[in-house]
Amino acid sequence: MIYLDYAATTPVRDEVVQTIQEALIESFGNPSSTYRIGKSTKYLLTQARKSLANLLNVSEHDIFFTSGATESNNWAIRSQAELARKLGKGNHIIVSAIEHPSVMETLVFLEQEGFEITYIHPNSDGEVTAAAFVKATKDQTIGWIAMAVNNEVGSILPVFELGELAREKSLWFHVDAVQALGHLDWDYSELACTSFVGSGHKFYAPKGIGFMVYQPWDKQMKLTPLIFGGGQEANKRSGTENVPYVLGMVRALELLAEEKNSILEHHNDLQNYLYDQLNQHQIAFERNGNPKAKVPYIHNIWLKDLMASQLLILMDLAGIYISAGSACSAGSLTDSKILKAYYPETPERWSQSIRLSFGKESTKADIDKFIIQIKKFIERK
Ligand code: PMP
Questions:
Q1: Cβ contacts of residue 66 below 8 Å, gap of 6+?
Q2: Burial category of 261 from C-beta neighbours within 10 Å (exposed 0-12, middle 13-18, buried 19 and up)
Q3: Does residue 332 or residue 264 have the better pLDDT?
Q4: What whole-number distance in Å separates Cα of residue 212 and Cα of residue 208?
Q5: pLDDT at position 381, please?
Q6: Residue 309: what pLDDT?
Q7: Which of 16, 329, 349, 370 registers the highest number of CB atoms within 10 A of its CB?
Q8: Ligand 1 pocket mutation pick from 66, 105, 151, 155 by most atoms within 8 angstroms of CB
Q9: Where in this chain does the record put each Aminotransferase class V domain (predicted)?
Q10: Looking at this predicted complex, what is its ipTM?
Q11: How many A from CA of 99 to the centre of ligand 1?
């Protein structure tokens, strides 16, 4: 199997499996129980929250464990939008036009609830700029939303610059950091945002576990509880905590903290090799997105005149796993909304583009096999 779709999900690494297995067997107590095996499980949960806080350089009191980034995005955005409007601050939100559906669909809901949403499209250089957010801001604006790294094309958005500006303007600012966390050497204490989110399965932990960091600069902007019940997660998200998965997720990030720079170097190397090989084999292609501001582990490539959906089938038969667009829309193979936002004038680009995303185990031999299949596909045409 050649897996080149790490932006969709990552395999759970062995060390993380081991951490989870140990927790499942040895720490099965309910963290809310008052006897010893409950208390020891609670202790592990508290320690994991502290470790995550250290890794991210944020306060442990601002971390909320969730089922993943979809839940976290929904929660952070709705909570901040609805409270800001209730406090009479306004009803206008500005967002990049290349966000994940968990952000976009939350905004569709808010639009139906009477909020006004402005979408910032990439400019002709393929950049979503902070200047465009500033220009669209008006009296009624309450918040900004931008992802750190786009999951389909790998572009890096100017979230640090946006954060500084949002703070100056006292706007809430939400960042979906899913595709950056664990992979880029960022200090999240320097990211001036009121909330950001991560998802375990994008960095070698299981699916169904993630977190939100909520750190408003306006203390009136208290987080609205998401689930009522026994009062877990500081009374904001009740339900018995998934301690084994929390421990596994934090372990995964701890391991990456030590390795991420060497993995990044490896990804840079693979990136150069990929484009060298495409050129050497005279495959007609263009890179999607702005190559100057992107991560080396997500690649979106327009393969001119090749139908991506057909190429994907051939790759699948050859045991090579790549994607067209993202895997986030319930298995659909419709044209990518992200590529539509980037290239409204070139419809052929929407259906002739593929995404390749590297992980720590990816190799040049994987790329060679991928190239062989593209050539086969071209020959068959
Ligand atoms: N945001 C981004 C940028 C993503 O790539 C994903 C996963 N595809 C999500 C949010 C949703 O994360 P989860 O699968 O944990 O709900």
A1: 72, 75, 197, 209, 210, 211, 212, 237
A2: exposed
A3: 264
A4: 13
A5: 75
A6: 92
A7: 16
A8: 151
A9: 2-370
A10: 0.99
A11: 10
**Which residue type sits at 58?**
V
CA-to-CA distance for 78 and 94, rounded, in angstroms?
Answer: 14
Which residues belong to the active site?
A: 328
Under 8 Å between Cβ of 209 and 246: yes
Per-residue pLDDT, 326: 57
* pLDDT tens figures, 203-251: 999 999 999 999 999 999 999 999 999 999 999 999 999 999 999 999 9
Token pair belonging to 316: 């699948």
Instruction: Tell me the domains of the chain and their CATH numbers.
Output: 2-9+259-380 (3.90.1150.10), 14-254 (3.40.640.10)
Distance CA 188, CA 58 (A): 7
DSSP track, 102-131: HHHHHHHHHHHTT-EEEEE---TTS---HH
* Confidence at 41, pLDDT banded by 50, 70, 90: very high
Close Cβ partners of 4 (under 8 Å, ≥ 6 residues apart):
320, 321, 322, 356, 357, 358, 362, 366, 370
Indicate if the pLDDT at residue 13 is higher than 70.
yes
Beta 195-199 vs 172-176: how paired, if at all? parallel
100 lines ligand 1 (CB under 6 A): yes
pLDDT at residue 331 above 60?
A: no
Angstrom distance (rounded) from CA 113 to CA 91: 10
pLDDT at 272 over 60: yes
Task: Report the chain's C-alpha Rg in angstroms.
Answer: 21
Q: Which of 174, 202, 245 to probe ligand 1 with, by most ligand atoms within 8 A of CB?
A: 202
